[in-house]
Write a structure and sequence with these properties.
Layout: E1 2-7, E2 10-12, E3 18-26, E4 28-39, E5 46-51, E6 57-59, E7 67-72, E8 77-82, E9 91-101, E10 106-110, E11 114-118
Parallel strand pairs: 2-11
Antiparallel strand pairs: 1-3, 3-8, 4-5, 4-9, 5-6, 7-8, 9-10, 9-11
């Protein structure tokens, strides 16, 4: 059994900051790429940021310069630091990770999502 659990969402005013966390737990052997996606009401889920196992990162154009993705491999955790938040960043944020279990099975796993609302 492998799971991802997100935390850190909430309500913040425009221009504010939030830090999301996503911890992987269970029968994990290794973790490859870790990513954050988001889905706003009435819109498709979109990739926000990704980080490889050796720290290479990529970002959606809409968040470059404002969001920073990082990971702590010892804690099997990925973070998303979000600064200068805008109302259009409002969405449910999902963590995704490509992981290998201790029995050698690879899979793409998703967290349950955490709501981020940017509003005055």
């Amino acid at each position: 059994q492998v799971q991802l659990v997100e935390s850190g969402g909430g309500l913040v005013q425009p221009g504010g900051s939030l830090r999301l966390s996503c911890a992987a737990s269970g029968s994990i052997f290794s973790i490859n790429d870790m990513r954050w996606y988001r889905q706003a009401p009435g819109k498709q889920r979109e990739l926000v940021a990704g980080i490889s196992s050796d720290g290479l990162t990529n970002y959606a154009d809409s968040v470059k310069g404002r969001f920073t993705i990082s990971r702590d491999n010892a804690k099997n955790t990925v973070y998303l630091q979000m600064n200068s938040l805008k109302p259009e960043d409002t969405a449910v944020y999902y963590c995704n990770a490509v992981m290998e279990t201790i029995v050698g099975r690879w899979g793409s796993y998703w967290g349950q999502g955490t709501q981020v609302t940017v509003s005055s």
